[in-house]
Design goal:
6-stranded mixed β-sheet; 4-stranded mixed β-sheet; 12 helices; 19 strands
C-alpha cells in the first residue's frame, strides 16, 4: 500500500479570510431558517434554499443553473474554472433538504438558525446545511482572493436526498449529465468529523464506501373472512411470520476492503496487530477491544434488513385478504446477490417482496492520491488527528452520481470537542454545530479542494 501521508502535488497557501469564517456561520444559519423539510412522497420544497445558494454563487462570479424535475424541487449546479484545463473535473455536492423536526422536543426552534454560546442550532446543522455553507464560503473566498483550484470543480446542491433522490441527484445524473462533464471524483457527505475514542485520541473517519439501499415492500395475500372463525390462510399471520423471521435473522460477517482497512488502522492505534483476512479472525473479539471506535465499523460488517412499517385490515373483526410491510434493507459492496437469496428464503412461499427503492453499494480507493490529500488536509489543521477510512452504513447522493462514473468520498470536515455526540445529531433532536467546527471545516475544505 502506498504511503498514506505522502502528497506529491504542490499544496496551496490557505485562501480562507475572516470574511469566509463569518460567512460560513451566516450561511449555515440562513439555510437552516429556510424550512426544507422532506416528509417523503414528494412533500418538500427546496426552491427557496436553492435560490439562496444560487444568489451567493452568482455574487462570486459563477453562473449557477437552477433545475427542477418537479416544481419547487430545485437543484443548483455551477462550475468553478480550474487552473489546469487538462485536469479531470471534481464534483462537490451537498443536499438542501432535511428530515422533519418536532419543535416541542427541541431546546431551540429547529428552524431558527440560532447562534448561541458559540453553537449554531437547527435542523440541518450537521446534515447537511453546514457543509453547503462551507462550500459557499470557500468558493466566495476564492473569488475575493483571485485564486483557482487546480481542476474544474462542479458544485451541486441537490433536492430530495432524504427520500429517493428522484427529484435530486437521480434527476441530475439521468437528465443533465453534460453539467458534470469531465468529473471523475466527487466529494460529499459524511466524513472527516472528530470521533473521540479515548482521552487525547481524535479519529477523523473519511467515507470511502457506502452500503447499498434495498428498501422493500412485502405483501401477503390470504383469504378474507370473519374474525371469529379459523383461517389458515390469514394474510396478517403470514406477513407477521415473515417479518419476525427477517427481524430475527443473523446476517453473516462479510468484510469489504474499506472495512478491512479501517479495522487494521483502528487496531494499530491500540497496538493490536491483526489481519482481518486471516483464517479464524475473531471480529467480535476485536470490536470488543476497540471501545467507542467500534461504532465506525460494526454496522457495516454485514448486510441488514430491519422491518419498519406494517399495514393491514380495516375492522377488528374482519380478517383482511392482504397485508403489507416495509423493510429497510442495506447491502454491502458485492453483497446484493446474497441479500436477495436470503430474502427469498425468509419471506417464504406466502409472501411476495419487491424493491421499493434500490441503489448500489459503493467503494472508493484508500491507497491513492485523492484519499492521501483528504487525509493530509485534515492533519494539516489538526496535527494530532488520526484519519481512518470507513464505510457508511447508509447512503448519499454519491450513489446516483456514480452512474456518471464518479467515484465518491464522504468529506464534511468538522473538529468537534470531546463529549459532542455527532452520531446522535444526525436526524436527532437538538441538532447543532459549534462555530469553531465550521471554521475548521472551511479551512480544511479550502485546502483539500484546491490541492485535489
Amino acid at each position: 500500500m502506498a504511503d498514506m501521508h505522502t502528497v506529491t502535488s504542490e499544496v496551496p497557501v490557505d485562501a480562507v479570510d475572516r470574511t469566509a469564517l463569518d460567512e460560513v456561520v451566516e450561511f449555515t444559519s440562513g439555510l437552516i431558517r429556510i424550512d426544507t423539510t422532506n416528509r417523503g412522497g414528494g412533500d418538500c420544497r427546496e426552491r427557496p434554499a436553492a435560490e439562496y445558494a444560487a444568489e451567493r454563487l452568482a455574487a462570486a462570479g459563477l453562473e449557477p443553473v437552477l433545475l427542477e424535475r418537479t416544481p419547487g424541487r430545485t437543484n443548483v449546479v455551477a462550475r468553478v474554472e480550474g487552473a489546469d484545463p487538462t485536469a479531470e473535473a471534481l464534483l462537490v455536492h451537498g443536499h438542501l433538504d432535511v428530515v422533519p423536526a418536532e419543535a416541542a422536543d427541541w431546546s431551540a426552534d429547529p428552524f431558527s438558525g440560532e447562534v448561541r454560546d458559540g453553537v449554531v442550532w437547527g435542523r440541518g446543522a450537521v446534515d447537511m446545511k453546514n457543509t453547503d455553507a462551507m462550500v459557499l464560503a470557500v468558493v466566495r473566498a476564492w473569488a475575493r482572493a483571485g485564486v483557482k483550484p487546480r481542476r474544474d470543480i462542479v458544485v451541486a446542491f441537490t433536492a430530495d436526498e432524504e427520500d429517493s433522490a428522484v427529484d435530486g441527484s437521480g434527476f441530475l445524473a439521468d437528465r443533465h449529465p453534460h453539467l458534470f462533464e469531465g468529473c471523475t471524483e466527487g466529494i460529499g457527505e459524511s466524513g472527516a468529523f472528530t470521533v473521540h475514542t479515548a482521552p487525547g485520541r481524535a479519529l477523523y473517519p473519511i467515507a470511502a464506501g457506502e452500503r447499498g439501499t434495498a428498501w422493500l415492500k412485502l405483501t401477503a395475500h390470504g383469504t378474507a373472512g370473519h374474525g371469529s372463525k379459523p383461517n389458515k390462510a390469514n394474510a396478517v399471520s403470514r406477513l407477521a411470520a415473515a417479518v419476525a423471521r427477517i427481524g430475527a435473522h443473523e446476517w453473516p460477517v462479510r468484510l469489504t476492503g474499506t472495512v478491512v482497512a479501517c479495522l487494521t488502522e483502528l487496531a494499530a492505534l491500540q497496538g493490536l496487530p491483526v489481519d482481518p483476512r486471516a483464517p479464524g479472525f475473531d471480529l467480535d473479539a476485536l470490536l470488543g477491544r476497540l471501545g467507542p471506535a467500534a461504532a465506525l465499523v460494526e454496522a457495516t460488517v454485514r448486510n441488514s434488513a430491519n422491518p419498519t412499517m406494517l399495514s393491514a385490515g380495516y375492522k377488528l373483526n374482519v380478517i383482511p385478504g392482504q397485508a403489507t410491510a416495509y423493510v429497510d434493507g442495506r447491502t454491502l459492496p458485492g453483497g446484493e446477490a446474497e441479500f436477495i437469496a436470503t430474502l427469498d428464503e425468509l419471506t417464504g412461499p406466502d409472501v411476495r417482496w419487491e424493491f421499493q427503492h434500490r441503489e448500489i453499494a459503493l467503494e472508493a480507493p484508500v491507497d491513492g492520491r485523492t484519499y492521501r490529500i483528504l487525509r493530509e488536509s485534515v492533519e494539516h489543521f489538526d496535527p494530532d488527528a488520526h484519519v481512518v477510512p470507513f464505510c457508511m452504513a447508509g447512503g448519499t447522493d454519491a450513489k446516483q452520481f456514480s452512474r456518471l462514473g464518479i467515484t465518491g468520498y464522504g468529506f464534511s470536515p468538522l473538529k468537534l470537542p470531546p463529549g459532542f455526540d455527532y452520531w446522535s445529531l444526525f436526524h436527532g433532536v437538538d441538532e447543532r454545530v459549534p462555530v469553531d467546527a465550521l471554521h475548521f471545516g472551511v479551512r480544511v475544505l479550502d485546502r483539500a479542494l484546491r490541492t485535489l
